[in-house]
Each structure stands twice: as C-alpha cells, then as structure tokens.
Write a structure and sequence with these properties.
Blueprint (H helix, E strand, L loop, with lengths): L6 E10 L2 E11 L4 E5 L6 H8 L7 E6 L2 E2 L5 H11 E4 L11 H11 L4 H14 L15 H13 L5 E5 L7 H18 L2 E5 L3 H4 L4 E6 L2 E4 L8
Parallel strand pairs: 3-8, 3-9, 6-7, 7-8
Antiparallel strand pairs: 1-2, 1-4, 4-5, 9-10
Helix pairs in contact: 3-4, 3-5, 5-6
Length: about 230
C-alpha cells in the first residue's frame, strides 16, 4: 500500500473573475482519515470539494490523488478518476426516482462495467451495512429523508473509491436523523478504510472526526475556530 496521501491539495487558488474564494489552500488526507471541513457560508467549502473532486479546475495550485498529479488531465481521464477513485455525497440525495434503492446503488457500478450480479451483491452489502436491508426494493418516494441519504452514501461508495467527499450530507435533516445518518456514514467509511472530507456546519459532528480544518481568510487552518457558520 502506498504511503502517499490519498489526496493532496497544494497552494490551491480558486477565483471567479475578481472574486478570490481560495488563496493558497493546502491539505493532505491520509487513508482511513476523516476530516471535518468548517467555515461560514460562502467561505469556499463547496469550491474546495469541487476542486478536490475534479469537478472544477483550480485557478492555481496542484491536485494529487494517490500521489499522482491530476491537475491537468484531459476530460476523459478526469471522468474516469471521478468514477473510479472519488465518491460524492451532497446535501440532497439526487437519487433516480424510477429505480429502487438497490438499483440506485448498482447504477454507477454498471456504468463502470461491473457485471449485474456483482453490482447487486455490492449494493446489498452496502445497504445492509447502512441499516437498509429491509428497504432495498423501495423507490425513493417510499423512503424517509434519512433513508434516502443513506442510499446516496451507499451509491457514493459503490465503486470502492479511495476518497469520499461529502458536502453538508446531513444539512437537510433534523437533529436526530442527522446523527443516525452521520453514525452510519462514519461506520462504513471506517469499515472501507477511506480518506474522507466532510463539509459540515455542525460542530458537534465535526468533533467526532479525526481532524478539523476551517476555511479562514481564503486559506485552510487547523482546528475549530470561533467563526459563525451562518
């Protein structure tokens, strides 16, 4: 196993016209490490995750995944990296409404060329681990908000990524459901041995992760700062 960090962000700059969102952000995430990403609304949490997940190019700086500089790869390679090495969880689940839970989790595997039987087996394994063994045949409209988000987590992990990026994954849920979903997320991330960055406004959830980083003055600084997250 490589001793390289799963993700390395080096002097990342992200700007839109004259508006600088990130200016010299640096971060390394090791395998098996969960990092909480905090910062006020508009501070650049989503932008940083989009750069890390190869959804947006940085204006400056370099992005490394498993020791490989992927800053300037072409679109085809970028798409393959996102499919094979990176899992995404968003605040809203974005499940396919016409498919049941198992099919939603199988879908990215089928795109990656996994045979139907193997895809279904992996989907059932993940959904069972997330407490959804009795809900696999249900469509999103038949699931609660917390159940939908757990299906979305399973889908993000379906192709066995090395890096999980989550943008306020419990931000649309009530406090009790949020805790249950977060506990399920933490358990399965630990079990899969992933590197993970979880953007959240919930300092209580952040305190349960391995490390906290906060965006302040367009840079990443270690620890929980006294800043408003509103």
């Amino acid at each position: 196993m490589s001793d390289q960090p799963v993700l390395k962000l080096e002097n990342i700059v992200r700007s839109f016209d004259d508006l600088v969102i990130l200016d010299g952000a640096n971060l390394e995430v090791q395998r098996g490490e969960m990092i909480a990403l905090l910062g006020p609304s508009g501070s650049g949490k989503s932008s940083l995750l989009h750069v890390a997940g190869l959804l947006e190019p940085p204006t400056g700086g370099r992005v490394y995944i498993d020791g490989e500089d992927v800053s300037d790869v072409n679109d085809k390679t970028r798409t393959a990296l996102r499919r094979d090495r990176i899992g995404f969880v968003y605040q809203f689940h974005h499940l396919l409404p016409e498919f049941n839970a198992e099919a939603n989790v199988s879908f990215p595997q089928r795109i990656a060329g996994v045979p139907p039987g193997k895809a279904a087996e992996r989907s059932r394994e993940l959904l069972t681990g997330l407490g959804l063994a009795e809900r696999m045949d249900h469509q999103p409209a038949q699931l609660s908000g917390g159940e939908k988000q757990r299906v979305a987590i399973a889908r993000a992990l379906a192709n066995r990524p090395s890096l999980l990026l989550a943008d306020e994954p419990t931000g649309n849920l009530d406090v009790e459901t949020s805790r249950k979903v977060f506990d399920a997320l933490m358990s399965i991330v630990r079990g899969e041995g992933l590197a993970a960055i979880i953007a959240t406004h919930d300092q209580g959830l952040a305190s349960h992760m391995d490390r906290v980083v906060t965006i302040k003055n367009r840079k990443l600084v270690p620890g929980l700062l006294e800043v408003s997250t509103v």
